[in-house]
Write the structure tokens for this entry.
Amino acid sequence: MKQSMSYSVRLFARLCAFLPLLFVLSSQENIAQNIAKNKYGLPVVSDYHIYEQLCKKDSNFSLVDLEKYLPGIVLDIRYATTNNVTRSKLYDAPHAFTSLSVARALKKARAELRELGYDFKIFDAYRPYSATLKLWNAVQDDRYAGTPEKGSRHNRGCAVDITLISLKTGKEIAMPTNFDTFSDKAHANYKNLPPAVLKNRKLLREEMEKVGFKELSSEWWHFDFNGWKNYPLLDIPFEKLMQ
């Protein structure tokens, strides 16, 4: 009888520990049901209030401003200029946001890189889904741009386009190509490069992999955060995030 009661107590304790998780999952499912699917069948969050609800349930979904989270970070947001493959501005302002979990990982990698004499330069981070549609119209190649039917990891706040700069000079170190050079030379495993360039690319890749990123095979500068599928597709404009 005593053993039976003890087992019942342990079982009850386990159920109590599981209930908060069950509640969160149930709440997320209820919120997800309010996300309208677009003409491609994708549930894209464009309503800021729904985005806020998702963030309250899981703070990792929150998009954070990298200039505030990583003071002194260097930005070169090409899609806020005409100096990009589309020859037009996709963003109204040069901002870089990522999900909170991605920002934390970048902070960890950055600390180690700075000890080695380097820092990050960010070309792109969170990209609203509507901007992905514009980019796709210009590129039309799923090796280099997210398709309307799938969206992009950038839309989830889980991808960064990034390179390294020297702390001593403030300039980019040598890499295989410029940003958004869509060629075999830009592929992650392209080998016909000077030893110094191969070394620099390897350093960037290894430091990013240490904190949970994976390099895109067709772009040496693009890294996806592990678990990106668990994050919602977003179409929240920068000006809303800056409020």
In short: The two ends are 61 Å apart (CA to CA). The chain has a mean pLDDT of 90. Strands lie at 44-45, 63-65, 74-75, 97-99, 118-124, 159-166, 213-216, 219-225, 233-234.
